[in-house]
Automatic annotation (TrEMBL), chain A:
Domain (ChsH2 C-terminal OB-fold): residue spans on this chain: 49-109
Domain of life, per lineage: Bacteria
Organism encoding this protein: candidate division WOR-3 bacterium
Coiled-coil residue windows: none
Domain ChsH2 rubredoxin-like zinc ribbon: from-to ranges: 8-44
Protein name: Zn-ribbon domain-containing OB-fold protein
TrEMBL record, chain B:
Domain Thiolase C-terminal per the UniProt entry, residue ranges: 236-380
Cited InterPro entries: Thiolase, Thiolase-like, Thiolase_C_2, Thiolase_N
Protein's recorded name: Thiolase domain-containing protein
UniProt GO molecular function: acyltransferase activity, transferring groups other than amino-acyl groups
Gene3D superfamilies per the UniProt record, alphabetical: 3.40.47.10
Lineage: superkingdom: Bacteria
Domain called Thiolase N-terminal: residue spans: 4-219
Length: 129, 382
């Protein structure tokens, strides 16, 4: 993960910052310049709620090189309580603990590292509650 | 718009082609198509390829292939739309002939995936890099998320998913160009190594090298050829959110649905008029969603329909007579063009042991990413 790209996305990855359309109320995560629902360009800053539920899930057994040492790990699509869906790892649980509809909480965790001496990339993961 | 015909097809065997290079396989397929068409020249060329830059460190392959095919200085450009690069290249070639700009156009697709790249990483670049791949998702992972939701919402079973792979391997076993021309059983698919639960390695298309080419021509240029003519009667394309999680319903491939509707409209036909189809079975669940979203079967019925044998070579609507991506192989940028090759061979009655009876209208559907883009072409025997 090249550093400029990583730094740019920090508000979303660290603080779950999103954009709420002032016209139709749809929340876009990450924030967009144009609302995909109504086409408005007028947004206010908001956040995803800390809690949500699993929409679907899987366990990755074959990973890209950046994640090869983490396998197996769980991935889910999680819908926050304010209706925004994200793809995230679900940790601190076993694959068999997951199910569609299960409640989870977003937590702040390390995701990967840029080699042995580069930056450590943080972001959100989810844990069952 | 002018009528557009396919007058020549050619492809390499798909597989691990260790002794051949990216340019070698493209030229091999192109020469086969030119020879099949019996044309003396081509006016321009479109080359579908997903990511030769990541797989072999080579970009600018429009010019490279024109150079090595010995057809420079004709216009040649690479077309990229992830795994539907080949299908999109076909669409551009179709419009170029239809618009009257060229009489004869070569459309090719090529990918070399086995030269040592991190294939999982390269393929994942077709997903949302910042909000899916950053979290560690893979392509099998995205389709596994679709599969799990489809199983819960529609009752699709693990066995029904496996039935897609079993059927496609049965067809592929009859295809001399297939990467894995051998049959597999339901038990083998279910008990194979898990890639992303619930999908196993035998639910997944392989990593392949390969190239495929077709020659498109106007009615004037096609006149007088001593072979059955195949006409392109419909072309439709569509896009959807790049991230799977952003879709209203992750079990519906909206881009497939819309691209299909657009192609049906141009062709003036209904889904029930389609005799057979090549569809983008990158994973078993994809074929189930696609046959639903193209309107061949009601939403949610793709699993039972497949399990009951209706998509087999002798079924109501044969799907992936070539063996599909699963058995024939999936050199990502070549796949869309190879689908057209299969449809043309079937419509000409030249599909050998896997030939279906008296086909009139065939369809090819090619998809990019987790369904963020899709292109559909409809072909008719004349």
């Amino acid at each position: 993960m090249p550093s400029p790209r990583y730094r740019r996305e920090m508000p979303q990855r660290y603080r779950l910052e999103a954009g709420k359309c002032k016209k139709c109320g749809k929340i876009s995560f990450p924030p967009r310049l144009i609302c995909p629902a109504c086409g408005s360009k007028d947004f206010e800053k908001t956040k995803l709620t800390d809690y949500g539920k699993i929409v679907s899930y899987t366990t990755i057994r074959v990973a890209p090189s950046d994640f090869a040492t983490q396998v197996p790990y769980n991935i889910a699509i999680v819908e926050s309580d304010n209706g925004v869906r994200v793809t995230t790892q679900v940790v601190d649980c076993k694959p068999e603990d997951l199910e569609i509809g299960k409640r989870v909480k977003f937590v702040f965790r390390k995701l990967s590292a840029e080699g042995h001496t580069g930056i450590i990339c943080y972001g959100y993961k989810a844990v069952p509650v | 718009m002018r009528d557009v015909y396919i007058i020549g097809v050619g492809m390499t065997k798909f597989g691990e082609l260790w002794s051949k290079s990216l340019r070698d396989i493209f030229v091999e397929a192109a020469l086969a198509a030119i020879d099949d068409a019996g044309v003396e020249h081509i006016d321009s060329m479109y080359v579908g390829s997903m990511t030769p830059g990541l797989f072999v460190g080579q970009e600018h392959i429009g010019a490279l292939m024109a150079d090595y095919l010995g057809v420079a200085p004709i216009p040649a450009v690479r077309v990229e739309s992830a795994c539907c690069s080949g299908g999109m290249a076909l669409r551009l070639g179709f419009f170029e002939v239809a618009a009257g700009n060229s009489e004869i156009v070569l459309v090719g697709g090529v990918e070399k995936m086995n030269d040592g790249a991190d294939v999982t990483y390269a393929l994942a670049t077709a997903a949302d890099q910042e909000y899916e791949v950053y979290q560690g998702v893979t392509f099998p992972g995205l389709y596994a998320l679709i599969a799990r939701a489809h199983m819960v919402h529609y009752g699709t079973t693990r066995k029904q998913l496996a039935a897609v792979s079993v059927k496609n391997h049965r067809n592929g076993a009859l295809n001399p160009n297939a990467q894995f021309p051998k049959e597999v059983t339901i038990d083998q698919v279910i008990n194979a190594t898990l890639v992303a639960d619930p999908l196993t390695v035998l639910d997944s298309s392989p990593v392949s090298d390969g190239a495929a080419c077709v020659i498109l021509a106007s009615a004037d240029a096609a006149k007088g050829l001593q072979k059955p003519l195949v006409k392109i009667i419909g072309s439709g394309a569509a896009t959807d959110t790049i991230a799977l999680h952003a879709r209203e319903d992750i079990t519906t491939l909206k881009a497939v649905k819309v691209s299909g509707e657009r192609a049906y409209k141009m062709a003036g036909i209904k889904p029930s008029d389609v005799g057979f189809a090549e569809v983008h079975d990158c994973f078993s669940i994809a074929e189930i969603c696609i046959i639903e979203d193209l309107g061949f079967v009601e939403k949610g019925q793709g699993g039972p329909f497949t399990e009951q044998g209706h998509t087999a070579l002798d079924g109501k609507i044969p799907i992936n007579t070539s063996g599909g991506l699963k058995s024939k192989g999936h050199p990502v940028g070549a796949t869309g063009v190879a689908q057209a090759v299969e449809v043309v061979e079937q419509l000409r009655g030249e599909a050998g042991k896997r030939q279906i009876k008296g086909p009139k209208i065939g369809l090819a559907q090619n998809m990019g990413g987790s369904g963020a883009s899709s292109v559909v072409h409809i072909f008719k025997a004349e």
